[in-house]
Design the sequence.
């Protein structure tokens, strides 16, 4: 298995990996999940999606799950994807990087301090 | 959608497409289904961009050293341009074929589309044309749907109708324009109600249109002149308003000038009418020169139908709603005026379908045909370029082995294609202008606004773009092949290349040729059907013999008294007819002469009749056409007499009133009963039927005759109509003599539409002939191109299989065998093309059915002719390569290895 890629990850990858934390998904579900989780800010087209998935598969961050849907329920040609441990590590590293950046922004008062959450 | 997707996926690297293609398709479809328009556009863009990105990623990953980029200078390009010219000059046949093919495709398309654009697509000169409609009267008795209206009906329409924003009326008239010096001329004019020009939105170039006061009965003598007349007679003098022109003997004051587009649609409207078609019956293009106020008198006879009513629908009103209203109004009028309006209804018809309805089917067929021609041309160019590319594979290989970079080779091929395409475009432009000129010269005059057609820049642009894309795309093939295969493979394969790539290549080119042949078959079948229709039409017996007859139309000047109370004793008019006959008949070379109320291809007018003793039946009888003829008519036009006797000089005012009828009238009104001796009542008198004449086709060759009643001129004098002279020799040559004789007799009389009667007949089928000629030309072009295609593919085969042929011959195959091999391959292509083409034409020629006459879309005889022609051409195209193959010298071929 190749090494985890160096951070930073391309934004599309980050979003895809994030979307896969919810469990295995097929292509169109991934597109929808990314759109939903980003409040519609990020829209991946099928071309971008599979370009990215191909690289993620090659790098071992994502793998195909063996699961095939019930043919009565879904199209057999659909493949499902899930995170590998390496993928989870890469995701965490990227998240940490973002976290640091956000903290830095707060310290420089670019962003307001976090509001205390209601109990 | 799936085709779009497949095309888009071509942007993707093959490897990726194979791995994810199926899935990608699924996802794309889901996303497409859920997306809006803008998002769909995004989806397409995404696939394209990501595909290209992946391609680049692939190359940078797998191709090891990135080549050094060298800047391309102007000097490099110039050198390449010169090299391209040299290379093309080495194969002049090839260059000629490509340039001519491209030129033909571009030229034909631009010319035809320009006509369609000018006639159908360009906005009409009338304002908001979609709300303009004709309001015809209908007649349940005769079943006619497009009759002019009576003047009182028109006024009632005006008063009662609510759904029209405006209604206006017009009527055609031919006027005699008498200049201060020189010969008087007959010009087409329109009487229009004062609301007409404002309603259609035509504004005068100079002056004003008619006011309501000027439009009253017994109003002033004012006139609007057309732009062309203004230019010809007044040198576009803006101070023309207030000057006078003389019409006949009376002066009219000019109050304004109308633009040339003001007579838009007039000819087509009149041509559609059941009668009172005015100058539309003359055939050919007629320009309206004068507009006069209608000055209609409300007290006019309700049984007389002289005017055409046009309306502008109110906003939000459909033609259907207006039809409902007008139908109700017509029914009320029928109840109020049962005698004149018996059986009358109304027919509201959008103006656009009246004006364009006649030409639309033909023009759309031509558009379809020209698109097929463009397809054939593109296939042919692709084919030629592929053949050329294949022939140059070795050149490419050697040059890359010697160090030419891929981008340099690509550039060279690009420049070559550009040179070829550029030359094709120039030829195409020339052909477009020449073709358009030819089309307009051939086009019948009754195509709306055909005189205003010009080359359209947009049309030209699109056609050029398509042609250029094909040229450049296929010109690049050799370069792409060189890139894909790499140098090594090629050199290893050498000249003994095991032909698997060659075979695939050949198969693709064969498919192109089969497609070309199939398209050519479709075009030929279409043209064949039209040719046969026209031939059938010419074979129709029109009921009269037009050959050898000169026709001249006349209208006696107003100095001839035409008092209604005195009819039919119009002494002066009867004397004029008799004088013309005796003077013309005395001239050398004249076989016979007649003065008739209408020439045989003129619809004329109709009138109601009843058979004495059977008046009750007459309620649902169609009105027969009324033909006033003198005793010379039947002999001059050679109309066969079926029963009884001909009308003669003895049938005058002192004799009992008589008529002749035509066969259709006999069948319709009498059935099996005898007609001779029966009396019909019309125009206030009872007239005995003394003869039955054969049917003349008054409405043109394609339409069956309607019932007709012939009245002898001795009992029904003829103040206007046609003089018809049968002469020995060329009728056209007799025209000056006829003009001279008539001028001597009556200096104030102008003959108009003087032409051989065959010319009139031929004009009545002019539109069909036009469509046939153009489609025929297209079919010929397509066939020629397909022939080039067949020849190209077979020549390539021969060149490729040179070695194989040599070996065969060395092993004892004789020349005839080898020739047969090649011809057999040509036959296979032809059969493929023919099969697909026949199926295609069976599907497509249904679209032609509106233009066919006396032949069915799937006519086997036509298809057989097409098959024969195609077979002949394929054989011809195979012959040269076959001969070349048969001449292969086995020794030479084997020694080459």
Sequence:
């Amino acid at each position: 298995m190749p090494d985890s890629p160096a951070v930073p990850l391309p934004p599309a990858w980050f979003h895809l990996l994030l979307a896969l934390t919810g469990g295995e998904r097929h292509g169109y579900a991934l597109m929808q999940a990314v759109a939903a989780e980003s409040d519609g800010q990020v829209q991946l087209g099928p071309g971008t999606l599979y370009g990215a998935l191909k690289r993620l598969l090659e790098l071992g961050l994502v793998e195909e799950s063996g699961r095939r849907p019930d043919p009565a329920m879904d199209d057999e040609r659909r493949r499902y994807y899930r995170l590998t441990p390496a993928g989870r590590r890469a995701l965490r590293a990227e998240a940490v990087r973002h976290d640091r950046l956000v903290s830095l922004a707060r310290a420089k008062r670019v962003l307001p301090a976090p509001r205390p959450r209601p109990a | 959608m799936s085709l779009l997707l497949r095309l888009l996926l071509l942007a993707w690297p093959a490897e990726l497409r194979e791995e994810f293609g199926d899935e990608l398709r699924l996802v794309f479809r889901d996303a497409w289904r859920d997306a809006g328009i803008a998002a769909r556009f995004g989806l397409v863009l995404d696939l394209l961009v990501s595909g290209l990105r992946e391609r680049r990623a692939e190359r940078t990953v797998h191709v090891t050293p990135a080549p050094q980029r060298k800047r391309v200078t102007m000097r490099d390009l110039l050198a390449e341009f010169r090299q391209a010219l040299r290379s093309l000059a080495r194969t002049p046949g090839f260059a000629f074929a490509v340039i001519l093919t491209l030129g033909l495709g571009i030229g034909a398309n631009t010319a035809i589309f320009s006509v369609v654009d000018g006639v159908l697509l360009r906005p009409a000169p009338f304002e908001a044309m979609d709300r303009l409609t004709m309001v015809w009267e209908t007649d349940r008795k005769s079943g006619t749907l497009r009759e002019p209206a009576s003047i009182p009906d028109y006024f009632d329409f005006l008063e009662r109708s609510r759904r029209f924003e405006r209604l206006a009326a017009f009527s055609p008239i031919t006027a005699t324009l008498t200049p201060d010096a020189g010969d008087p001329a007959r010009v087409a004019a329109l009487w229009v109600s004062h609301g007409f020009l404002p309603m259609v939105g035509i504004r005068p170039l100079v002056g004003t249109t008619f006011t309501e006061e000027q439009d009253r009965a017994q109003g002033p003598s004012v006139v609007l002149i057309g732009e062309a007349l203004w230019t010809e007679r007044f040198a576009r003098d803006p101070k023309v308003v207030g000057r006078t022109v003389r019409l006949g003997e009376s002066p009219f004051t000019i109050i304004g000038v109308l633009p040339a587009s003001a007579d838009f649609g007039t000819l087509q409207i009149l041509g559609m009418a059941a009668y009172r078609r005015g100058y539309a019956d003359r055939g050919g293009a007629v320009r309206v020169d004068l507009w006069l106020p209608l000055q209609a008198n409300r007290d006019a006879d309700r049984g007389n139908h002289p005017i055409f009513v046009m309306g502008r629908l109110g906003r939000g009103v459909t033609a259907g709603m207006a039809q409902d209203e007008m139908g109700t109004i017509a029914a009320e009028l029928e109840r109020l005026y049962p005698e004149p309006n018996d059986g009358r209804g109304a027919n509201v018809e959008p103006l656009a379908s009246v004006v364009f309805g006649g030409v639309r089917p033909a023009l759309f067929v031509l558009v379809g045909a020209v698109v097929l021609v463009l397809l054939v041309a593109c296939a042919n160019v692709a084919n030629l370029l592929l053949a050329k590319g294949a022939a140059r594979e070795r050149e490419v290989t050697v040059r890359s082995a010697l160090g030419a970079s891929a981008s340099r080779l690509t550039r060279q091929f690009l420049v070559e294609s550009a040179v070829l395409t550029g030359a094709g475009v120039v030829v195409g432009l020339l052909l477009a202008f020449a073709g358009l000129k030819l089309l307009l010269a051939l086009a019948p005059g009754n195509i709306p606004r055909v005189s205003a057609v010009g080359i359209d820049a947009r049309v030209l642009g699109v056609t050029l773009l398509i042609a250029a894309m094909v040229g450049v795309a296929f010109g690049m093939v050799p370069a792409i092949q060189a890139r894909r295969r790499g140098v090594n493979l090629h050199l290893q394969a050498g000249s003994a290349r095991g032909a698997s790539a060659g075979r695939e290549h050949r198969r693709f080119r064969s498919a192109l040729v089969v497609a070309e042949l199939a398209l050519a078959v479709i075009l030929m079948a279409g043209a064949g059907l039209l040719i046969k229709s026209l031939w059938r039409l010419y074979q129709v017996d029109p009921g009269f013999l037009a050959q050898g007859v000169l026709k001249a139309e006349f209208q006696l000047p107003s100095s001839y008294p035409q008092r209604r109370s005195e009819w039919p004793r119009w002494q002066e008019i009867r004397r004029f007819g008799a004088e013309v006959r005796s003077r013309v008949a005395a001239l050398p070379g004249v076989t016979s002469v007649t003065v008739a109320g209408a020439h045989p291809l003129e619809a004329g007018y109709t009138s109601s009749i009843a058979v004495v003793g059977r008046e009750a039946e007459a309620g649902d009888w169609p009105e027969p056409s009324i033909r006033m003829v003198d005793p010379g008519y039947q002999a001059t036009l050679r109309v066969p007499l079926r029963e009884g006797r001909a009308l003669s000089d003895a049938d005058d005012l002192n004799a009992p009133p008589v008529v002749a009828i035509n066969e259709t009238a006999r069948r319709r009104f009498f059935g099996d009963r005898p007609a001779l001796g029966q009396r019909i009542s019309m125009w206030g008198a009872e007239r005995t039927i003394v003869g039955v004449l054969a049917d003349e086709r008054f409405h043109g060759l394609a339409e069956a005759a309607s019932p007709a009643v012939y009245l002898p001129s001795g009992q029904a004098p003829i103040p206007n109509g046609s003089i018809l002279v049968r002469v020995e020799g060329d009728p056209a040559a007799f025209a000056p003599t006829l003009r001279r004789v008539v001028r001597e007799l009556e200096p104030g009389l102008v003959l108009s539409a003087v032409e051989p009667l065959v010319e009139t007949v031929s004009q009545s089928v002019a539109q069909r002939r036009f469509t046939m000629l153009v489609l025929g030309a297209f079919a010929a072009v397509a066939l020629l191109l397909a022939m080039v295609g067949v020849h190209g593919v077979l020549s390539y085969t021969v060149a490729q299989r040179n070695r194989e042929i040599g070996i065969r011959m060395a092993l004892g195959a004789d020349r005839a065998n080898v020739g047969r091999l090649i011809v057999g391959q040509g036959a296979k292509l032809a059969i493929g093309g023919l099969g697909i083409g026949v199926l295609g034409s069976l599907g497509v020629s249904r679209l032609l059915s509106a233009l066919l006459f006396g032949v069915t879309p799937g006519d086997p005889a036509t298809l057989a002719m097409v098959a024969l022609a195609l077979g002949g051409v394929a054989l011809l195209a195979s012959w040269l390569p076959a001969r070349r193959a048969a001449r292969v010298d086995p020794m030479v071929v084997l020694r080459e290895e």
